[in-house]
Amino acid sequence: LLEAKDGIFTITAQQGTSEIFKGINTETYGYNGSYLGPVIKINEGQKVTFKTNNQLSEPTTFHWHGVDIPGEGDGGPHHLLQPGDTKNVKFTVKQGASTLWFHPHPVGATAEQVYKGLAGLIYVEDEHSKKLGLPSEYGVNDFPLVFQDRKFDDNKQLNFKAAMNEDGTIGDTLLINGTVNPKLTVGKEKVRLRLLNGSNARNYTFKLNTGDSFQQIATDGGFLNKPISMNELSLTPGERAEIIIDFSKYNKSTDISLMNEEDIKLMPFNIVDKKSETSSDSLKNLNNYVVTDEERKLPVSKKLELFGMGKMVTINNKQFDMNRIDFTQKQGETEIWEIYNKPDMMGGMTHPFHIHGTQFKILSIDGKEPPTNEYGWKDTVAIDAGETVRLAVKFNNKGIYMFHCHILEHEENGMMGQVKVE
Ligand code: C2O
Ligand code: CU
Ligand code: CU
């Protein structure tokens, strides 16, 4: 956890080795370490400087996924740092409490660099969130959980190419926060889990082995208005959610685990008889997110069509071109983006659609209201084959921003475009 009163954070991309399997080292990348990165804690209203430093032997960028940041600091493909380069990114935090993340974005190497371990979390805190009485003791009753599937070769070396499938890398080994077979020790209290699907291409559907429900309290970009009771929760690559599990009703001998679909065990919980100081009882109103009537009445002004699988993936029949601006939009103006995921002869597939530099609102999915747990700020939305999703999109800053499928190998294969905000 990186906190800085003066708002100055040093973030170094570096290469090293990690002992993911006991006694065996494999080459990995990390921020300020050998795998993954620190959690950077920033506050609404704070003036922040990220001192970024590329200590890799290849170019990289530092992209702040979900952060409301001027285009020049966004860290998209245009902002390459050569080996040894440094860059200071300055901005004022203009968004509320949320769990965001950061990762590289160089054309042609994003997927592989993330795969090797370049990813970290950003926690935004605000005054309001401190009064909500949510579990908030880092590592005690408030845990980040980064889910990534990886493939290791016979010598237990992390291997990108071996994991490559038609639609991206799929691993047979699950890492949570860079750890194989982790367990989480929790007290008999409400515990907050901040989930990031940090996989390149795999989806997760989280549930409990007991079938019990849990509460979702936040989407990608902030709190839901109130906790939503869920039995299962799906996240596509890039998406986050915060959930609360109430362990007070269980005890030491309860067999309780976080599961994935098809009843795959992700992580068992180990319950101990203690409570932390910020232990909370009731969860009340968390936010006042609203989709306004004006937003609902706005006409569609941008249409996007996602199409394809494997290497042939396009947006509006085009593949990414660094030198082409696909759309323009005025700073501070809300526009309705309509995104259609066009099926192919095989039926098609879900694409997690992400826009840089903004948090948007989902207005509708196939003309209907989004599910209640998506009635909140989002920066990545799962669009199934055949679906049409309408988003209300506003950029608070100027600059050039990417929009793309967050299956990183699709992004790499050109399923990306650029919007210039002026
Ligand atoms: Cu997670 Cu282009 O972003
Ligand atoms: Cu992003
Ligand atoms: Cu895709």
From TrEMBL:
Keyword Signal among record annotations: yes
Highest rank taxon of the organism: Bacteria
Domain Plastocyanin-like: from-to ranges: 14-128, 163-249, 298-422
Keywords: Metal-binding, Oxidoreductase, Signal
Family: Belongs to the multicopper oxidase family.
Name under which the protein is recorded: Multicopper oxidase domain-containing protein
